Amino acid sequence: MGYYEILKSDKNTSQPWYFVLRAGNHEIIAVSEMYSSKQAAQKGIASVRANATTDTVHDRS
């Protein structure tokens, strides 16, 4: 089963947060746009979940 990871970029930017969607074998399926806050990235995941079949989120921040 796939899962999401919430990540924060090491770069000094106003939008450092993003998420990746990984397959069950841990390969990256998709990378999100950059978000200004962790909460905004979580909302992005919620939007993707409406069209995906996984419910697992791995918060790596």
Radius of gyration, Cα only, in angstroms? 11 Å
Distance between the termini: 21 Å
Could you say how many structural domains there are in total? 1
Q: Give the structural class.
A: alpha+beta
CATH top level class name: Alpha Beta
Beta-strand percentage range:
25-35%
- Tell me the CATH topology: Double Stranded RNA Binding Domain
Summarize the helix and strand pattern as letters.
EEEHE
How much helical structure, as a percent, in the residues? 10-25%
Largest sheet: 4 strands, mixed
Oligomer: single chain
Write out the strand line-up for the largest beta sheet, numbering strands in chain order. Answer: 3-2-1-4
- The gross shape turns out to be globular
What value does the average pLDDT take? 91
Number of strands: 4
Counted by DSSP, the helix tally is 1
Low-confidence stretches: none
The CATH homologous superfamily name equals: YegP-like
Give the second-level CATH assignment, the architecture: 2-Layer Sandwich
Pfam families: DUF1508
Family: Belongs to the UPF0339 family. Duplicated subfamily.
Protein name: DUF1508 domain-containing protein
Domain DUF1508: 16-59
